[in-house]
Design a protein that fits this description.
Blueprint lengths: L37 E4 L3 E4 L10 H4 L5 E4 H7 L1 E5 L5 H5 L3 E6 L1 H16 L15 H13 L3 E14 L11 E2 L9 E2 L3 E4 L4 E6 L7 E13 L1
Parallel strand pairs: 7-11
Antiparallel strand pairs: 1-11, 2-3, 4-5, 5-10, 6-8, 6-11, 9-10
Helix pairs in contact: 4-5
Amino acid sequence: MRRTYISPEFVNSPVPGTLNMKEQKFPFGSKMMEIEDKISISQGTVFWYENSQNEQIDLIAERVSNPKTTNFDTIKKLNSRIDFEKNQSQDQKETNCRWNIQINWYEVLSSYIFSRIKQARTFEGITQRDTLKKNVDLSIREYIDKNIISRYEFLGIDFWIKYERISQTSRLKWQNNFNPLIRSDFYKSGRYSQKINEKNLNLLFNQEFTAGDFSFDWYFDLNFGKI
């Protein structure tokens, strides 16, 4: 072969594919992570092992440390809040008070998927230096945002509510608590309306017993299906 002695203008260096977390679509097929057909984010805890850098490299070595965990009740509690519905009088607040529970369904679903990916060790072998942000967990979150969330649709919410007479408890008026222990058929309720957007779900309902005399506990599950 004849030598040209012309120096190349560019140097080709191999880089990890994990520097780009967006899966590319091609006409004759693309790789994509297998996901659950239906998701019901109910109760339970997922645990997994990883090293101090959040990498999953050597399971035997990682088992020496305590596992990382994600509790679904904790996720739901952190990403939901209850408040008075707007545009109601003080008299209505004292009687048939109207409430708004705002749920960040996007973050709840993302956290659920993240915990399952970690549990399955899907990114096993990926180190910090293999990722653009030099952080494996942030890269997994980015992968979820860019490739997985859009493949699910919201199917509905299961809602529970249990009323407590204020005079028989130490609660204050309008003190309503998130409580996973009330999850039973007896307290399940369908008396609500809902509004949903790209990030949040608003659950709107009227208190069934006088707000001046009763407070309540509440809880919910979220259900999603693969598109």
